[in-house]
Amino acid sequence: MQKTSNRSVKLSAPWPLWALVCLGAFLPACGGDSEGGAGSSSGSAIASSAKRRLMDPKVVNVRELIDKGRPDLARTVLASFGPQLVADLGVEEPLLRARISFLEGREAEWLALVEEARAIDPKDPRPYATSVEIYAAMGRLEAARAELERGATAVGSVVTPELQRARGIVAIVTPGGAKVGLGFLESAYRADEGLPFIARPLGQAYYLMAQAAFAEDQADLAMERMETSLRFDPEDMDARQFYGKLLIAVRQDFVAGLDVLEQLHREGQAIGVELARHHWQAGLIAQVQGESEIARKHYLRAKELGSREVETGTARTFMREQSSHALDKAVAAARVGDEDGVRSAIAEFAALRTDPQDIAQREIALTMIGEADRALTQGDTEAATGLIAAALLADRGATGIAEVQCALFQSKAIDALQAGETDQALRYAVEATQVRPDSIDSWRMLGELQYALGDYAGAAASLLKATAYARATDEPLGIEVSQMLAESQHLSQNSIGAVATLEQALREARPEDAEIRDEIERYLRVLKD
Fold first, then answer.
1. Reported pTM
2. C-alpha of 28 from chain center
3. CB-based contacts of 515: which residues, under 8 Å, 6+ apart?
4. CB-CB contact of 9 with 173 (8 Å)
5. What is the number of helices (H) and of strands (E) in the chain?
6. pLDDT tens figures, 255-265
7. Are 284 and 302 in contact (CB under 8 A)?
8. Alpha-carbon distance 91 to 85, whole Å?
9. What structural domains and CATH numbers belong to the chain?
10. For residue range 155-169, what is the model confidence (pLDDT) as tens digits?
11. What is the pLDDT of residue 215?
12. How far apart, in Å, are the Cα atoms of 137 and each of 95, 195, 402?
């Protein structure tokens, strides 16, 4: 059963006066046989109005600006008209100002201007048509019909394009009057194709009829009517939105349909939720058809627009699988030190995941840390270097990153020593203590290197830290380290510290340390003497 409700026509207004219509429903004003006004007959002979129309470029520009809903610019151009142009315009000049005043919301002003125009020539149909159309746009249909009666009486038996246009506008805003209204508008257009202010009402009429056809399962007819609608009024956002939906629903043309909807979204139309849903649908279809790249593109756009659908079901499984591939690419790039490749793959991974960004970044970092640890175990310090760099890029604060960094620098220090690069080995050992200041092994390695290189003061400081951290964790380093620490202290002119270190070592000595214990006792006697 067809419902009815009042609708307002878009009469060169910058704001949308038509309600948004969802796909699968149609505007109740469509169809029906209401005549929509007094003295109307779409089949009557219509006189041409072109002979009264001034085609000066400035005047044409004002009409176009009014039609586009730009009263500010229209008023500025109109104010530039010279006295002769104003005189030549005659009745139309106050009517142009009336339309501008209406768009600016000045009711008393536009009414006065229509009367001013009517006074110039009471038999000219244009003041009546202007008044009818403004009343119709305001939803005041009784006033609009009364003006039609006045116009028909004033003009007489001649049906003019202006009044026929006005009848059509009243009809299409009358419930059930869209079909008749389209007939009036088409007859006005046939009589005078240059008739001002006809294109947008024709566009709206075809739009309404397209919705009616779609509701009656006449999909091809709906498409045909929408294409005609947009030829007359290509800028109407609601009509373009419905056309985009039809392209998707009727022709299954997601590319063209989504292009239309994306453009509307860029222009500020609030269709983000709807657009996200269509991208999700396009992704699902592409996935079923085995078009993974296309599916991913649509799912990512849906996710960007806030789609909930991509977080569940088939889409979620697909996105997780794709993110796993992206993570594999990130690891492969990291192993060979391809920083750009790592950045690209990390960004891809984060985009594909439905988790919050920080969680996705942390997962990347932990994966890289695990891979770096494995690479170190295999002795591949080059791969470990790239993997740790990738982990830092993803999340510098990830758990375990300092430990693996520290292990990497230790491995690099050993590699440098084996290559005879002692200075480089020392730098790596220092870096190991910097990334993890509480690492017992790092301080011990640094101390041993410093001792071997003759930096006894440095060795003493480093070994003292290693010893302190070891005692704090109940992991004593052993009497050999204490002996090296004491020697370093002694050789760096700190005999008191050396004595204290040796005495502590003797207290902590184990039964199996008997041989070195005897050596330490002899050394201690020498220091005390």
1. 0.65
2. 34
3. none
4. yes
5. 26, 0
6. 999 999 999 99
7. no
8. 12
9. 50-202 (1.25.40.10), 312-431 (no CATH), 438-529 (1.25.40.10)
10. 888 889 999 999 999
11. 94
12. 16, 19, 70
